[in-house]
Write the structure tokens for this entry.
Amino acid sequence: MMETSFRELKYICDDNVTAGDVMRQIMKLSSREISRCKQFEDGVTCIRATTKEKMPIRLIDSLFPGDELFVRIYEDNDNAGDIVPADGPLDLVFEDEDLIIVNKPGDMVVHPSYAHYMDSLSNYLAGYFARTGQQHVIRTVGRLDRETSGLVIFAKNRHAAALMAKQIKTDGDDDCISMSRRKEYQALCYGVFENQNGTVNEPIRRRPEERMIREVHPEGKEAITHYKVEKQFEDFALVRLHLDTGRTHQIRVHMAHLGHPLLGDNFYGKEIPDNHGLTRAALHAGYIEFNHPITGENICISADIPEDMKRVIDTA
């Protein structure tokens, strides 16, 4: 195998335990990942406290206090896909060995798609990896609509991606039904709110005969949105939102259902008389909080509201 990049995990034992137990219970490696590590001569090794020599070790072999276990997770660069590296704007807000978090502009797709084969966020991230000599497959954790700006997480290796995926539970389709990590959004919503905070608990489905449009409907799937008005202006409000579920267009659908569609929303806000110059749905994923998949550290990241939304607020 012509693989050159890897992520090495290290564990210093403080008790008698087998290498397999450490890999399964502490490193939280899947059976598939453990099997793959074993294929490499240096995939699972140990430095004994007594000899200070590094040597291959089997899963059933015992480790003792002071022993150091090393597990190398090699990247499968041959399966990197067809994402072509490209130079473009990339606002990096966090990066370590396992994750990279990017603040995506509004009106940019995350993955290459029709008419956007070279100018997606993934193209620009692949270009950044190429320029910095990093060899990673593009692995997105979660997603944002094209029009939505804000924080997008990418995993740099399979193990980090798998553990981050466990922080989202799905019900068999592309939509999340519950999230153990927290993401907050800011939106500019049309109209004057009667209630300054509240919860919308209305099921959402794809509108029949429509590929993109969603709607509130009794036959839809559970969708729960919490909102709080941060500042009310004459004909719109700055609203902070977080979700218990993650249906496609959930915030846009629920706010329109309340009679407060997002400014600039050409799907659900066509009746808005004044979009204040916005040409995209005014939605920004500005805060995310989660446990780091490898270190367990609580990570909190914020991204300032983008210029197009800020301009509307500043001139109101």
